[in-house]
C-alpha cells in the first residue's frame, strides 16, 4: 500500500523540483508556529489530535460535507489539543489549501501526507503548519535524517510514524523526538491497540509519543492514556459522524468521566 502512495507523489515532487529550478517555490512563512510538542505535554497524557480526513483508500468517501473551517472551529471548541490535516489529494481528497484555514483557531496543525523529499518540507514551511508527518518505513535512514534536518532548518516539528520495532529502531537511530505508533496492520488493513502497548515499552526520556488509528471509544482512549501516550490521534472515528466536533466533545467527556 505504501508503494502505491509513493507513486502518487512522484508527479508532485517533479513539479516541486521544476519550481525549485525556476526559483518559483513559495517562501517559508516567517511566523511563530504553535508547538505540537508543548501542546501534547501540557494537555497529556491522552491529549487529542483531532483529524480532518475527507476520504481514505479503505473507507472511500467519509465526510465531504464538513468543511475545513467547521472542522477547525468544532474541534477547537470540543477541546482538541492539536489538529491533523490530510493534504494528500489522490487517495484522501486532501489539499494544502486546508492548512491555513485549519490553523485559524491557533492550535498546532500537523500536515499528514506522504512526504519523501526535502522540497516537500519547504512546501510545508510555506503554510502555517506546525509539524509534518514522516513515515519511517517509506524512507531510508539517510533520507529520514535529511528530512529531519530540513524540518529543523525551517522551524517545523517532525512526527515520525512507525508500525513495528524495525521502524522504531530507524526512528530512534535518526534521533526522532516525536514518535507516532500507527495501530494499523498494512497487510490486513485491520487495527489493534496491542502494538501501541508493546512499542511504548521502548520509550526513552525526552521523547513524545502519539498513538494513532484504531481508537473507537472512550475506553480505547483511556487504555492508551493509561500506558502513557502523550497524544491520541483520532480521525475516522470522528469524521464518520455528522458533526465530528460534537462527537469529540462526547468522547472527551466520557474519557475524563464527566
Give an overview of the whole structure:
The chain has 258 residues and is an alpha/beta fold. It has one domain: Alpha-Beta Barrel (TIM Barrel), CATH 3.20.20. The strands form three sheets. The chain has an eight-stranded parallel β-barrel with strand order 1-4-5-6-7-8-11-12, surrounded by five helices. The relative contact order is 0.16.
Question: What's the arrangement of secondary structure elements?
Answer:
Blueprint lengths: L1 H21 L13 H8 L3 E6 L2 E2 L3 E2 L6 H11 L3 E5 L11 H5 L6 E4 L5 H8 L5 E5 L5 H13 L3 E6 L2 H9 L4 E5 L1 E2 L4 E2 L2 H6 L8 E5 L5 H9 L4 E4 L1 H4 L4 H12 L3
Parallel strand pairs: 1-4, 1-12, 4-5, 5-6, 6-7, 7-8, 8-11, 11-12
Antiparallel strand pairs: 2-3, 9-10
Helix pairs in contact: 3-11, 5-6, 9-11
Amino acid at each position: 500500500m505504501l508503494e502505491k502512495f509513493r507513486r502518487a507523489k512522484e508527479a508532485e515532487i517533479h513539479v516541486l523540483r521544476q519550481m525549485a529550478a525556476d526559483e518559483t517555490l513559495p517562501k517559508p512563512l516567517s511566523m511563530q508556529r504553535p508547538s505540537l510538542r508543548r501542546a501534547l505535554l501540557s494537555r497529556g497524557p491522552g491529549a487529542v489530535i483531532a483529524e480532518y480526513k475527507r476520504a481514505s483508500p479503505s473507507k472511500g468517501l467519509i465526510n465531504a460535507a464538513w468543511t475545513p473551517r467547521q472542522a477547525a472551529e468544532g474541534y477547537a471548541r470540543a477541546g482538541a489539543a492539536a489538529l491533523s490535516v490530510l493534504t494528500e489529494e489522490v487517495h484522501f481528497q486532501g489539499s494544502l489549501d486546508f492548512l491555513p484555514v485549519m490553523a485559524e483557531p491557533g492550535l498546532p496543525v500537523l500536515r499528514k501526507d506522504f512526504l519523501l523529499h526535502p522540497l516537500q518540507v519547504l512546501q510545508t514551511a510555506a503554510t502555517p503548519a506546525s509539524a509534518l508527518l514522516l513515515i519511517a518505513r517509506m524512507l531510508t535512514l539517510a533520507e529520514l535524517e535529511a528530512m529531519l534536518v530540513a524540518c529543523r532548518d525551517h522551524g517545523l516539528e517532525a512526527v515520525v510514524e512507525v508500525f513495528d520495532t524495525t521502524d522504531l529502531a530507524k526512528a530512534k537511530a535518526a534521533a526522532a523526538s516525536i514518535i507516532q505508533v500507527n495501530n494499523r496492520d498494512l497487510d490486513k488493513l485491520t487495527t489493534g491497540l496491542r502494538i501501541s502497548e508493546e512499542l511504548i515499552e521502548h520509550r526513552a526520556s525526552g521523547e513524545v509519543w502519539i498513538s494513532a488509528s484504531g481508537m473507537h471509544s472512550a475506553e480505547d482512549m483511556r487504555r492508551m492514556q493509561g500506558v502513557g501516550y502523550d497524544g491520541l490521534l483520532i480521525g475516522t472515528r470522528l469524521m464518520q459522524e455528522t458533526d465530528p466536533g460534537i462527537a469529540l466533545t462526547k468522547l472527551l467527556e466520557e474519557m475524563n468521566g464527566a
